[in-house]
Each structure stands twice: as C-alpha cells, then as structure tokens.
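We give the chain.
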Amino acid sequence: PYARLLLEALKQSGWYVNEFVLVYVVTSLTVFNDRHFSCENCDGCVSGGFDAATSQIVLCQNNIRQQSHMNRVVTHELIHAFDHCRAHVDWFKNVKHLACSEIRAANLSGDCTLMNEIARFKFGLKGHHQTCVRDRAIRSILAVRKVSKETAEKAVDEVFDACFNDLEPFGRIPHSKADAKRAYRDFQNRDRYTAN
C-alpha cells in the first residue's frame, strides 16, 4: 500500500508521464523494472538510492536480505522521487533540501516503526519516533554526501519541524501496513467531495 499510494501520487502529479514513465494497467500500477529499478552491489551499509538524473531507484542487493526491508527501501526511495517531482529538490547543492527529503522518507516509509526500532535494540517512548527520524536523516545525509556530521545535524535541525509535519501524500504517518492502506483509500477519495 505504501508504494501504490506513492505511485498514484506520482501519476497525479504529472511527473509520472514525462519522467518516471509508469503505466496504469487495470487496477494496479506497473513500473518498467528494467528502466526505473536497478539492483546493484553497493558499498557500505547503504540499502538503496534515488538517482534524480536518470529517474531510477537503486536497490542494493548485497545489503537487502528480507522482503520487508526491500519494501521499506522502495517506499523510502519513492518518497524521494515524489519530493523530486513535487518540490524540485536540489539534491547536490542544497543540503537543506536533501535533509528535508530524508526526514520525510524516514518519517513516512516505516523506517522508524516501533518493531524496526526494537530490532535495532533502540528503545524509548516519549519522542522516540522523532528521535529516530532525526538520527536516520542525519545518517542518510552522511552516507550520500561528503559533509561533516555537524553540517548534516544543522541542516536537519533547521528544517525538521516543517519537514516532519509534511505528510504528503499520505496525510498521516503510516505506522503500519493497515495505516498505509487507510492512507491509500483516503488519497483515492481526496478530491471526491470537492469535485462537485
């Protein structure tokens, strides 16, 4: 449901036709896997990436070992694709743009669900989700850009509130697959009542 919602949002944005070339078939979305997804061996602990220049999502086959992990990586990278389309992100020159997209991806992709955090042996209740999102955004910036940790932390801190509260296209933080399904249904019905 996460990917379906994001693919539908890309389609409705208009970027779908020109950039990502997704094809709507009956009731499901199909992506040209050989064009828009690439499975590669990656260095370090990176699980995937979004290449804005080629509109391609890279999945790191040597670092993804479970289907649930791959689902989160695809969702995370589709959020970057959505941000690229919607906000015209300057990935290489503006670290605040990158920070914002990383915050949104960590917040909305399921990276920081309670179960994932327990699996990482990270525990906490009050404010833990926000802490996880902040930490993962900083980690992602450091993995893809040669900037100091202080620069990454400063960029994340400066845009955190606005980007954490930007829940498009989900409308809510999907803490589970059931939440993502509800968000997808809400997204499909979003313009239903305002169209008349």
